[in-house]
YafY family transcriptional regulator
Amino acid sequence: MQSDRLFQIVYILLDKNQVTAKELAEKFEVSTRTIYRDVDKLSMAGIPIYTNKGKGGGISLLDHFIMDKSILSNEEQNKILIGLEMIKATEYGDVDQAISKLKTLFNKSDESWIEVDFSYWGSSKLEKEKFNKLKYALTSCISIKFDYRNLYGSMTVRMVDPLKLIFKQKSWYLEGYCLLKNDYRFFKVNRINNLIVTDTLFNRSKYDLNKLNPTFPSNKIDNPIHLKMVFTSNIKHRIFEEFADHVITELSDGNLEVNIVLNEDEWLYSYLISFGEEINIIEPDYINKILVQKLTKTLERYLDNS
């Protein structure tokens, strides 16, 4: 469209200061005569554009010409660009041209600073393909079908309209409307198998996204326990990764003391056992006895099978 070409000419001149009619003609695949007509139209519209003939000449804007962008604050300009960069990073839609135009208008650097990869470190090829399928289904509003294994090991086939991918408590979850249960549900992504993107489109606007949050497990602690633990310096990297700084105290010998309130349940026992010989539970002592019982049963099972 001619109007779009006129705007792009101004953006190019703001960025490069001066270009030749031939360069613009090649870029827009029109004749140089058309470019000169565009220049006349821009001039008539009040844009201070002019041409210099001869060697080293070209088309330019008057020095210090700035398009009116005062309607947006610097913070608002940055938010717009951040949003577009994130859309670009998810590979949804072609926004390169819009980003380039706005960066020129806002006088921002032309560097891409964000990359989004939904898969986790060490993901297999299949896992990355799963996230790519989820991303495509979410952005295209297409229903998906998959096998889902719940906490108790039961497998069901689900047909879901995907609405949101979230990262919570160190795990990825898919939130959507389950057509099997006729209700909003959340699914842990690593329990999703045999994912298929169907040919069925759905209308996202018919769903109330505010109804998603109540279905997600709360952070409420039903059976709180205060743990005082000391971890060896061998796993310092893991401790700082999995616990908040304010519950960690670095001891003089390099080991780490952790004081924290957690929910006492089977998951906690398994979690503490995962630290192996690198953990020493100071308080409460009865937790040590519970772990010894569980480890003893595990050892007996292996001995029986040997």
